[in-house]
Design a protein that fits this description.
heterotrimer, A alpha/beta, B alpha/beta, C alpha/beta, B: alpha/beta, TIM Barrel, 13 helices, globular, C: alpha/beta, Aldehyde Dehydrogenase, Chain A, domain 1, five-stranded parallel beta sheet, three-stranded antiparallel beta sheet, 10 helices, 45% helix
């Protein structure tokens, strides 16, 4: 029998013009870092160097914060809100126009499949600007008092898993509410943020309203500790989030933190099993599992465990892993060598602690950072793989007997970002959703995002919400 | 008949089995097929896939205005879709009304198409609104005139009224008439069943009653072969194979007009039911206009530039 | 001549009035230096017991209907109304307030209960939303209680501050550990007596007296406390609370206004639920 093979259908890398070297975007211009230090960013799918990136040190951070402060005092805070909004509309439109370029660049720098950057990351980023643009002159209707005020200068630090989308989640609400921004993209994925700086230029955004500085954790630390920063917004690991919370404890700085998770995805016996399997796959294998709200703990009602696992394994056999630029790729590269080794470490612990590991047969590319989609069955609550965030394509499967047991297991974690529930029974879904201690509950769906929908965690998954009317409060001082 | 799954052929046993089926979430199903619709097929696979799609076409004419001339022309086209290129395979079957079966059979036999089956729509196609006696006679006539495939419609009214036993018995009766030599395709008319839960139930009902194929639609009702419906049907045959060890075929009909649509169907078959179903014995596409678009795409792949409709025959 | 019966001021934990586990008390005097009472010098172990009680009570209190919570809060106001004279006397004694201002304060405190009682079944409507997402999904956001919240109450006006901190926190479905300011513990315990006779379930409100410096580090570092109303602490204590609280990302806030929805919403989490719309 002929086998139906999809021939490679790669997107063209020629869609983007990657410069050999990038400066810091401060006060509307790209400038060289004062000390002249640089680092490189690579394509994690091939380990090829993509560009040299400026390394911002304290002096550069100071310059960026000063630019943001000046822009806030002299321009941005004086601008009528409706005009402010128009800049955001412009940015949204330019992002839509240049969306394919952004998608390709994101895929090259991050390793995630082009299908995801093209269909999810970039369209959602543009939608975020469009949504928030409309808020700029309607803040008095947002439930934060008659005349809510911005904080001033916002220091924003974003992760590598959704570089452009996280940039939009940070910058769009900050600008809409009248703050100015110094944003630091992740060390391994700076390129789309730097391309976004060009979009700011094309949009004619006043100099200093958005500043983008590149560097590592030390750069971020200088930024958070800068005395002239009024507001800190961070998405990343819980460990760093706690360190930021400590660092600003004695200051007047306010913070929004979007941190880790260990989301439970609960499948009841009466679920639409085939769609639940799709939801499980999307929950853990979307973006290689580099998702803070991933459904990384699958809780299956014990009496349908065999059926669900059989279908899940069959479905996992169909996951296409490989060249992220291929439009048919489902699972791309792991973002960095460091992340790959963390995944391996946790998977090893799972095997040592006695859980059963399974992956479909798949050949991984010889260069770059790769990990096969993996599930662990026979997992106990006490196993590390059931408690720690793996942040990779690795699913831990547990079972439960009663709805209350599912809730108890789901909530038995210091995290509280997301959870899923699969059932055909409305009353059971609402009962479960009410008891889950998590900020986002996906019922009969998973990993859906929208600018109008607030996102954020309970417990140690963070402070505050991003998106929707609720997300504005993180950037407004006004009274409720 | 797959009596191993049912205690007996009573409506109670049937309903008891159908209750064990998991529900379908329509939004999740759509999301899955939308994702699969982004699959991109290129070059060598595409050549193979286009030829496969041609072999899967049930080239169809089901009009009140059908004449012997129209049917003969269709048969000629089905045997040699493009007489200037004999490497192009013949279609899967010619699908006509009962009274045109003999004309089609003769036209095929006399035109180099002995290998091509004639499929007849029966059981008071398209509405299914007739007495059982009429439906039986309809089917017997078709077979007597040379049909080796029967595309029967189910009684949707009975299905929606909950008379599942009646629908089940009708299919069993028609299958008995067909015997082992005539392939029975059961048209569910999913556009009238409306929900995917109903589609799933109807699929199992038809498979348990002995249908060799489950088919989406008559082509007379919109929507016809939507991607989510085909997805649910492909899941049904996949899972039924696990339960009963028998591979049932799937035939979407209606609305598949161009190569892109056909490729999307093949992607669904490959990823949902599995590669075993990528064969005309297990997957057919009921269509008429589709064939010419497949031919034009084939020309484009062969010549490297886009074809003109002037170079493919109307019928 | 008759000798007055003096009141023993005890702690309020899980619906009972125990003495401190420490066995210690401290002396409170009035503004003229006259002995008033020997309230308990609460310890970290009293805090620990209170947190256990508050955590245990949380699910039931948060799942009570909002209407029911509103009625119970209103009941506290009713009971306080009957104890006006006692509150006035305690405020005059521990704050050195004038009888008029003490009376005004008690009235304001009672009215603040009533204000928050009415919020119980409205805050979800004001603070929740349905969100128009792009796709076939119904999406709504609702606020839910945070969990266990500790309160460091401001010293003056003592009763009003206690109520302005406590009422919104339990109105929004949280359970509380109210740590009275060491300078004005008396009306905190009398408030606890009102609460204990108002159908507030055991453990929903726990009241401790003692020295803030005994509690700041233990409350800040306690991993099963979810939030802190730090309105009454010094700047240094606030920094310490926040530094220690970072370990489990406690929600820590201070407030100026007495009646504001922020005092509820800051101790609530927004939960967003998605569900497909289809047939």
């Amino acid at each position: 029998m002929n086998k139906f093979e999809y021939a490679p259908a790669p997107e063209s890398a020629a869609l983007v013009d990657i410069k050999s070297q990038y400066g810091l975007f401060i006060n509307g211009k790209f400038i060289a870092p004062k000390a002249g230090k640089t680092f490189t960013t690579i394509n994690p799918a091939t380990e090829e160097v993509l560009a040299k990136i400026a390394y911002a040190e304290l002096a550069d951070v100071n310059l960026a914060v000063t630019a943001a402060r000046n822009a806030f005092t002299k321009v941005w805070s004086k601008m009528p809100p409706a005009e402010r909004g128009k800049y955001l509309f412009r940015i949204a439109r330019i992002l839509q126009e240049r969306s394919r370029e952004f998608a390709v660049l994101e895929t090259l720098d991050n390793g995630k499949p082009i299908r995801e950057t093209r269909d999810t990351d970039i369209p959602l980023a543009a939608a975020h600007f469009f949504y928030h643009a409309g808020w700029a002159d309607k803040l008095s209707y947002a439930g934060h008092g008659a005349n809510p005020k911005p904080y001033g200068v916002a220091a924003q630090i974003i992760p590598w898993n959704f570089p452009m989308l996280m940039l939009a989640w940070k910058i769009a609400p900050a600008l809409a509410t009248g703050n100015t921004v110094v944003l630091k993209p992740a060390e391994t994925t700076p390129l789309t943020a730097l391309l976004f700086a060009e979009v700011c230029q094309q949009a004619g955004l006043p100099a200093g309203v958005v500043n983008i500085i590149t560097g590592d954790g030390a750069t971020g630390s200088h930024l958070v500790s800068h005395p002239d920063v009024d507001k800190v917004a961070f998405t990343g690991s819980t460990g760093v989030g706690k360190a930021i919370a400590k660092a600003i404890a004695g200051t007047k700085k306010s913070a929004t933190l979007e941190l880790g998770g260990k989301g439970a995805n609960i499948v009841f016996e009466d679920a639409a099993i085939d769609e639940a399997v799709e939801g499980i796959v999307s929950g853990i294998f979307f973006n290689q599992g580099h998702v803070c709200c991933a459904g990384s703990r699958l809780l299956i009602q014990e009496n349908v465990q065999d059926e669900v696992l059989e279908k899940l394994k069959n479905r996992m056999n169909l996951i296409r892993i490989g060249n992220p630029m291929d439009k048919n790729t489902d699972l791309g590269a792991i973002n960095s060598a460091a992340q790959l080794s963390r995944i391996k470490d946790l998977v090893d612990s799972g095997e040592i602690e006695g859980a059963m590991r399974w992956s479909p047969n798949c050949t991984l590319p010889s260069s770059g950072f790769w990990y096969a989609p993996t599930i662990f069955t026979g997992v106990s609550q006490s196993h590390r793989i059931a408690r720690e965030e793996i942040f990779g394509p690795v699913l831990s499967v547990l079972t439960f007997r009663t709805p209350q047991e599912a809730i108890d297991k789901a909530n038995n974690t210091p995290f509280g970002l997301s959870a899923g529930v699969w059932s055909d029974k409305g009353s059971r879904i609402l009962w479960t959703a009410k008891r889950l201690r998590a900020g986002v509950i996906w019922a009969n769906t998973f990993n859906k995002f929208d600018p109008a929908s607030p996102f954020g965690g309970y417990k140690e998954s963070g402070w505050g919400r991003e998106g929707g009317r609720h997300g504005l409060s993180g950037y407004l001082k006004g009274q409720y | 008949m797959n009596s191993t799954l049912l205690a007996d052929n009573s409506e109670a046993s049937l309903k008891k089995f159908l209750k064990t089926l998991a529900p379908v979430d329509a939004v999740g199903a759509s999301a899955r097929v939308e994702m699969l619709a982004t699959r991109s097929i290129k070059t060598s696979s595409k050549n193979w896939a286009i030829d496969l799609a041609i072999r899967m076409v049930d080239l169809t004419t089901l009009e009140g205005a059908d004449t012997p001339g129209k049917v003969k022309a269709l048969c000629a086209k089905g045997v040699y879709p493009d007489p200037t290129d004999l490497s192009i395979p013949s279609v899967g079957a010619i699908c006509v009304y009962n009274d045109m079966v003999k004309i089609a059979r003769d036209a095929l036999d006399n035109g180099g198409g002995k290998h091509i089956p004639v499929a007849a729509v029966t059981t008071a196609f398209p509405s299914g609104r007739a007495s059982m006696e009429v439906k039986i006679q309809d089917t017997k006539d078709a077979i007597a005139n040379g049909a080796s495939e029967i595309d029967m419609v189910i009684d949707r009214g009975a299905f929606l009224a909950g008379n599942l036993g009646l629908v089940f018995d009708e299919i069993r009766t028609i299958k008995e008439i067909c015997g082992n030599d005539v392939r029975l395709k059961v048209i569910l008319e999913t556009g009238e069943l409306v929900t995917l839960d109903n589609v799933r139930k109807a699929c199992y009902l038809a498979m348990l009653a002995g249908g060799d194929f489950i088919k989406t639609s008559t082509g007379k009702i919109s929507p016809a072969a939507t991607a989510p419906v085909v997805y649910v049907m492909l899941e049904a045959v996949r899972d039924f194979y696990k339960m009963a060890g028998v591979r049932i075929g799937v035939k979407p009909a209606g609305g598949i007009r161009n190569t892109k649509d056909a490729m999307k169907q093949l992607v669904l078959v490959n990823e949902i039911a599995g590669p075993e179903w990528l064969d005309p014995s297990l997957f057919r596409i009921g269509a008429s206009a589709l064939l010419n678009d497949l031919l034009m795409q084939r020309m484009k792949m062969r010549d490297g530039y886009y074809a003109s409709p002037n170079y493919v025959t109307l019928d | 001549m008759r000798i007055d019966v003096m009141k023993t001021y005890k702690l309020f934990i899980n619906g009972s009035f125990p003495r401190s586990e420490s066995g210690r008390v401290y002396e409170v005097k009035d503004s003229k230096g006259k002995f008033l009472a020997n309230p308990c010098l609460g310890s970290r172990k009293d805090l620990r017991e209170s947190v256990v009680a508050a955590r245990t009570a949380h699910h039931g209190w948060a799942s009570a209907t909002a209407f029911n919570r509103g009625q119970i809060l209103y009941r506290v106001a009713e009971i306080m109304q009957g104890r006006i004279d006692q509150f006035i006397a305690e405020i005059i004694a521990q704050e050195g307030a004038s009888p008029t201002s003490a009376k005004t304060q008690v009235q304001s405190a009672i009215d603040t209960w009533v204000w928050y009682a009415g919020w119980c079944d409205k805050i979800d409507s004001i603070s929740g939303s349905t969100n128009p997402v792009s796709g076939p999904y119904y999406n709504f956001s609702i606020p839910e209680s945070l969990g266990v919240v500790a309160i460091f109450a401001d010293a003056k006006p003592s009763l009003l501050n206690l109520v302005a901190s406590l009422a919104p926190i339990i109105a929004s479905g949280n359970t509380a550990i109210l740590i009275a300011n060491e300078k004005s513990p008396l009306c905190a315990i009398t408030l606890a007596e009102c609460i204990s006779t108002s159908d507030v379930p055991a453990g929903v409100v726990n009241v401790l007296t003692g020295k803030f410096d005994q509690f700041v580090s233990w409350a800040g570092s306690h991993m099963d406390i979810d939030g802190i109303d730090a309105t009454g602490v010094s700047k240094n204590d606030l920094t310490e609370l926040k530094e220690l609280g970072a370990e489990n990302l406690k929600r820590i806030y201070s407030f100026n206004e007495l009646q504001t929805t922020k005092r509820m919403t800051n101790f609530m989490e927004v939960k967003t639920v998605w569900h497909p719309i289809g047939i």
